[in-house]
Structure formats: C-alpha cells, structure tokens
Amino acid sequence: MFLITTFIGMASLFVLLEAYFLAVIQILVYAGAVVVLFLFIIMLLDVGEEKRVRTKLVTWIASFVGLALLIVGVVGITSSDNIQTQAEALPEAAGATLKNFGYELFTTYQLPMQVTGFLLLIAMIGVIVLSKRVKTD
Q: Which of 2, 41, 49, 89 has its CB surrounded by the most CB atoms within 10 Å?
C-alpha cells in the first residue's frame, strides 16, 4: 500500500512540474497495473513455515539497510545548502509536451529506464522462484 502511496506522491510532483502527461501515465501504469500485478503474485504465493524462518534473517538485514539509507538521505537533504537558495526562474518542464518527453526519455533517461525494467524483471523472477514448490521424496 505504501508503494501505491509513493507512486501517487510521485504523480503529484509531476503535476507540480506541469508535466500532466507523466502524472497520468504514472497513475495508470505504475499505481494501476504494476502494483496490482505484484499484489496478485504475492497473494498467490503459498510460503511454507520453513521459508518463513529462513527469511527472518534477510528481513532484519533489509530493515537495517533501509533504516541506514533513510538516515543518510535525511541527513544529506537537511545539511544541504541548496535548500536555502532559491531559483530565480524555473526552466520549462521536460515532460510538458510529448515531444520533449520522448526526447528526454530516449536520450537523457535511457539508462534509468533500462535499469528499472531489469529490476522489475528480476523481482518477477524472484517471486516465481520463491513460489515454486519443492517436491520432497
């Protein structure tokens, strides 16, 4: 549910940047389709007791790493000098028109788009591997 909230927050940031097309795409594609797909995959999992015990250590490690990243991010943002300075004039939003959006997507942001696609692919393969039943003889 927090992932959906994050995607809606990201869409609201696009609205503030006057990139309405990106905001609508953010809601439709990510908050609508991808999250629902992952929710159904997670609901279809039948994780046994032995896998729950094994993932307890991984959960604690991931929680510690997440907390450390959160602390580093908050300290980095609050100690930055960029917060106190104000921009004199805002440049035109990159995603305001479809032509600008397409140009930026396939030139400047091509690597992040590819990395995001691979991360989603790896996550889906991980869910499939975790949901696979092991036959015991």
A: 41
Q: What angle do CA 22, 28, 31 make, to 5 degrees?
A: 100
Q: Could you tell me what percent of the chain has a pLDDT over 70?
A: 73
Q: How far is Cα of residue 62 from the mean position of the Cα atoms in its chain?
A: 16
In this structure, the dihedral spanned by the alpha carbons of residues 81, 86, 87 and 92, taken in order and rounded to 10 degrees, is 100
What lies within 8 Å, CB to CB, of 22 at 6+ separation is 11, 14, 95, 101
Q: How many residues does the chain have?
A: 137
Q: What is the dihedral of CA 65, 37, 7, 73, to 10 degrees?
A: 10
**What band does 65 get if pLDDT is binned at 50, 70 and 90?**
very high
Q: Where are the alpha helices (DSSP H) in the chain?
A: 2-16, 20-25, 35-44, 49-78, 98-106, 110-131
Give CA separation, 110 vs 6, 11, 102, 113, 128, in Å. Answer: 22, 20, 10, 5, 27
- Alpha carbons 37 and 100: distance in angstroms, whole number: 30
